[in-house]
Design a protein that fits this description.
The complex is a heterodimer of chains A (573) and B (99).
Chain A: E1 3-8, H1 9-19, E2 24-27, H2 34-40, E3 48-51, H3 55-69, E4 73-77, H4 81-84, H5 87-95, E5 100-106, H6 122-126, E6 132-136, H7 142-154, E7 160-166, H8 167-171, E8 173-178, H9 196-208, E9 212-216, H10 218-222, H11 226-236, E10 240-242, E11 257-260, H12 267-275, E12 278-282, H13 288-291, E13 302-307, E14 321-324, H14 327-337, H15 345-367, H16 376-387, E15 392-395, H17 399-407, E16 416-417, H18 428-438, E17 444-449, H19 450-453, H20 460-466, E18 471-476, H21 481-490, H22 505-511, E19 515-519, H23 522-534, E20 539-544
Helix pairs in contact in A: 1-2, 1-7, 3-5, 3-18, 9-14, 11-14, 12-15, 16-17, 16-23
Chain B: E1 4-13, H1 18-28, E2 33-40, E3 46-55, H2 57-68, E4 73-80, H3 86-98
Antiparallel strand pairs in B: 1-3, 1-4, 2-3
Classes of the chains: A alpha/beta (573), B alpha+beta (99).
The structure holds thiamine diphosphate and magnesium ion.
């Protein structure tokens, strides 16, 4: 508890952020938030504020920051259009369980409801996409509200919180500032206790299983349960697959790692889901991109579902055992109690055989083609081999995202940052900025499409002004590639509005003072990637890739995950 | 699954915006609310919200779980309206009176 006398609401807010351990925040000023920015001017020694070029950039940067560091991301915007510009990122953080505190300014309390200049009812607008939101109309409420906001954002299943602060609340004087962190709310039980009976029943299933498969979702990382997941897997010789959001929960080099599940996942992970007699699903939510047609999902498996959010249990699949609680604690209890097992030779042989097939039919041709244009898979593989699994990989949304998820090497947790549930184009560049601000000592490589880059390309200005050393690899196919792929496969190649006339991205980068280069020849690719990574400072590498390459394997939308397709012609059967 | 009339109740902090969060969940499931009522409980600051609507049990289950996720909500439950009969609630007394 700290006490300070006679300060403004704006200062109380900044002191509250400091009390919560905030060191960095992302934002954009405007009329209603000037009092807050005015105070911030005195706090720049303690609070590193990054000025983005659009509020969407600020919120995605806060997301990238939160995802890379595990801390709560903070962003701020003015009232009206400033606040509404945050909504896409807030919705993205909601589905992807990212802890955020978003501060929006609001017109003075006396003007609420009058259609005053730049008044937007951001509280109503963000109800469905926030974990909690609250409007503050007096300075006195600020410290307690901020304490609640951080507590709610980071506990339980994390999520975004919006705090809307009227202009008068920023300027009013608070007689005394006292900060008490929030430690609980009577109506909110963020972390249900892992129940012993549930653990005991899960242990029985694990002990009896001959073909178990663990699927790790992002919840494993959100709970800090990476080591416990590996301990359970190793002790009981359980192969491990991850979801898109769960990538890097287990190193991709782990001998038990069998790849990623889902629409463009790995053959082994998907086929083993169908053959398994037990799924241990940890901190994941059975998204339709993971399950395909649910009625044919994991037909032979009992299911143990571990998730902290009670609303996820039974939402899509009916588990045989539900463990509602913290994933790390649940995994730890299982790893303590399940019987140790020797290597499951035959079951792991299934993984090896599936990988061989995938390598032969898909991977080889994708990452080491003999001729033709550079492929996206090849570019990702080059970056992966040069970085050796140590970089944080950030992606935008589209084909390049799927290639990045398939061919990246990830040795450390929280190293794959992508927009999973919402699939937000424009996420990548600002999220990479946030990740680099949060982890300045790590290499941050962004894979972005030519389409998605142009959705938030103005953030190159943020890279320039704040000197943020992100490496931007544009996988440039001149198409809205993922949509074009669907048009080719399912709409008779009718490429309706998916071809792009792109600017010269290297000239654009130069305009922002960012070093850049375009590469289109296979011979120069590796050297260009090395140059990008060796460069001291931000760098944009425009990689001209095959225009009409496709991502395979693929489970067509709505089909069973047993229906993997391997190419345009072949249905994989 | 067939549509039936259900009553959903939620025990909540009496705070601004909670009812909006609950009704947003109905809107998202495209379920029309037939009746909404908020009453005080014996605990100051705690209210009970009652909503009646038609839907399937599966959807009611999901709605109730999503309502429970609201920070200000202590708990939420649902019941099929047809199960609220005098016999179901006061069965013992009624059968005693019938003798
Ligand atoms: C904001 C937004 N608008 C539209 C889409 C639909 N969409 C998904 S992938 C994609 C194409 C992305 O093109 P590009 O960024 O060039 O990446 P590529 O697929 O070519 O790698 C589109 C339009 C989306 N996900 N997000
Ligand atoms: Mg493209």
């Amino acid at each position: 508890m700290t006490e300070k006398r006679n300060i403004t609401g704006a200062e109380a807010l900044l002191l509250s952020l400091l009390e919560e351990g905030v060191t960095d925040l992302f934002g954009y000023p405007g009329g209603a938030i000037i009092p807050l920015y005015d105070k911030l001017y005195d706090y720049t020694d303690r609070l590193n504020h990054i000025l983005t070029r659009h509020e969407q950039g600020a919120v995605h940067a806060a997301q990238g920051y939160a995802r890379a560091t595990g801390r709560v991301g903070v962003c701020m915007a003015t009232s009206g259009p400033g606040a509404t510009n945050l909504i896409t990122g807030i919705a993205d953080a909601m589905v992807d369980s990212t802890p955020l505190v978003c501060i929006t300014a609001q017109v003075a309390a006396s003007l609420l409801g009058t259609d005053a200049f730049q008044e937007a009812d951001i509280i109503s607008m963000t109800i469905p996409v926030t974990k909690w939101n609250h409007q503050v109309t007096s300075a006195a409420e600020l410290p307690e509200t901020i304490a609640k906001a951080f507590y709610i954002a980071r506990t339980g299943r994390p999520g975004p919180v919006v705090i809307d602060i009227t202009k008068n609340a920023q300027t009013e004087i608070l007689d005394s500032f006292v900060y008490t962190p929030c430690t609980g709310l009577r109506s909110y039980l963020p972390e249900p206790e892992v129940r012993d009976e549930a653990v005991a029943r899960a242990v029985e299933l694990i002990d009896a299983s001959r073909r178990p498969l663990m699927i790790t979702g992002q919840g494993v990382m959100l709970s800090g349960g990476e080591a416990e997941a590996a301990r359970l897997a190793e002790r009981c010789a359980i192969p491990v697959a991850t979801t898109l959001m769960g990538l890097s929960a287990v190193p991709t080099s782990h001998p038990l790692f069998v790849g990623r599940v889902g629409m463009h996942g790995n053959v082994a992970a998907n086929e083993m889901t169908q053959q398994a007699d037990l799924l241990i699903a940890v901190g994941m939510r059975f998204s339709d991109r993971v399950t395909g047609d649910v009625s044919h999902y994991a037909p032979n498996a009992r299911i143990i579902h571990i998730d902290i959010d009670a609303a996820e249990h039974g939402k899509i699949v009916k588990p045989d055992v539900s463990i509602c609680g913290d994933a790390r604690k649940a995994l730890s209890a299982l790893a303590d109690k399940a019987a140790p097992r020797a290597e499951r030779r035959e079951w792991m042989e299934t993984a090896r055989e599936a990988y061989e097939r995938e390598r032969r039919y898909v991977i080889d041709g994708c990452i080491s083609p003999a001729e033709g244009d550079i492929t996206m898979g090849e570019a990702v593989d080059k970056v992966a081999s040069v970085c050796g699994g140590e970089a944080i990989i950030v992606t935008d949304v589209g084909q390049h995202q799927m290639f990045a998820s398939r061919y990246s090497r990830l040795n450390r947790p929280r190293s794959f940052i992508t927009s999973g549930g919402l699939g937000t184009m424009g996420f990548g560049l600002p999220a990479a900025i946030g990740a680099k601000v949060g982890c300045p000592d790590r290499e941050v490589v962004l894979f972005v499409g030519d389409g998605g880059l142009q959705m938030t390309v103005q953030e190159l200005g943020t890279v320039m002004q704040s000197g943020i050393a992100v490496k931007i690899a544009v996988l440039d196919n001149g198409y809205l590639g993922m949509v074009r792929q669907w048009q080719q496969l399912f709409f008779e190649s009718r490429y309706s509005f998916t071809s792009l006339a792109d600017p010269d991205f290297t000239i654009l980068a130069s305009a922002y003072g960012i070093a850049s280069r375009r590469v289109s020849a296979r011979d120069s690719l590796e050297e260009a990637v090395r140059e990008m990574l060796a460069h001291d400072g931000p760098y944009l590498l425009d990689i001209a890739v095959e225009r009409e390459g496709n991502v395979f394997p693929m489970v067509p939308a709505g089909k069973s995950i047993s229906n993997l397709i391997f190419s345009e012609l072949n249905d994989g059967q | 699954m067939d549509n039936r009339e259900y009553t959903v109740t939620a025990l909540t902090e009496n705070k601004i915006g909670v009812l909006n969060r609950i009704t947003a969940i109905y809107l998202r499931h495209k379920i029309n609310m037939e009746g909404v009522r908020v009453i005080d409980t014996q605990v100051p600051g705690v209210s009970m919200i009652t909503i009646s609507s038609y839907g399937t049990e599966e959807v009611m289950e999901r709605i109730v779980r999503q309502i429970r996720r609201i920070v200000e909500v202590f708990d939420s439950r649902y019941k099929a309206v047809e199960s609220i009969t005098p016999e179901n609630i006061y069965g013992e007394i009624l059968s005693g009176l019938g003798d």
